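Observation: inputs received (chain + 1-hydroxy-2-naphthoyl-CoA).
Thought: call the complex predictor directly.
Action: predict_structure
Action Input:
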Amino acid sequence: MQWERVKEYTDIIYERAEGIARVTINRPEVRNAFRPETVAEMIEAFQHIRDDASTGVVILRGQGDLAFCSGGDQRVRGHGGYVGGDQIPRLNVLDLQRLIRQLPKPVIAAVAGYAIGGGHVLHVCCDLTIAAENAVFGQTGPKVGSFDAGYGMALLSRLVGQKKAKEIWFLCRQYNAQEALQMGLVNAVVPLDRLEEESIQWAKEILEKSPIAIRLLKAAFNADTDGAAGLQQLAGDATMLFYMTDEAKEGKNAFLEKRKPDFGKFGRLP
Ligand code: 1HA
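Observation:
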């Protein structure tokens, strides 16, 4: 793969090749913990990916073999949020979680090493997770004075069931890759040196499929869990498809031509 850097960032690396975007959290000195700037850069990259017609699948990973992401950078945790250069306390990873969920393209988490705390929730928000054999999963919130009871609770419960999700949150234990596979938290476990290759293989298999079918399936999975926000996404996709029909165009054209629309010419399917 010839990865092309899409844009230079400080805390992340955003590349693309052959229809795949690769976003790497690049703070290995803190096990890829995120600060507000890291998240802002990821949000910008994911917004670009959303609009980039050449990209069909995203791989999200951490720099190095030791960690996918260790959550919020505790050194900059202030009063009410994580504080960046602008001195504003933020929990902007919540915006990123929604963006990953709403992205009309699958996101694959490629996890080597620790996916912990807010970093664990990030992989939970991704559509698929490929784990290296050295991957370690867990929540730490109640240990370090935090919790993510949004997607961190609801999606995790969907994946592993409520009893297990409560265990994960209440006991803050760490789980290895095989345990994660067993509880449905990840899709596959591969040797560390095959993580890259395997993630790309999964991405390529998805890329061979119908983009709109994949997009609508992702929206439907979200609608099943995300309430009105999930329904909005699925309904938005329905509107996108409807706009492509002659029936919808008749409505617009009639308005512009100041005439009554003639919807009678369109048949009704069973
Ligand atoms: O809960 C939320 C949120 C909830 C709602 C809304 C928004 C949220 C946003 C974020 C979060 C959270 O993420 S809370 C949870 C925060 N994260 C953690 O509690 C994990 C902290 N880290 C660890 O438990 C461990 O470092 C580790 C299991 C990931 C790795 O252990 P290891 O391999 O033994 O390495 P370690 O020596 O601990 O770490 C290497 C270096 O990385 C250390 O720095 P050094 O001593 O070399 O100067 C360590 O301090 C640093 N580091 C690791 N994780 C973080 C970190 N520095 C800052 N923040 C970190 N998260």
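Thought: report the result.
Final Answer: The mean pLDDT is 98. The pocket of 1-hydroxy-2-naphthoyl-CoA is lined by residues 30-31, 33, 67, 70-75, 91, 93-94, 114, 116-118, 140-141, 144, 146-148 (CB under 6 Å).
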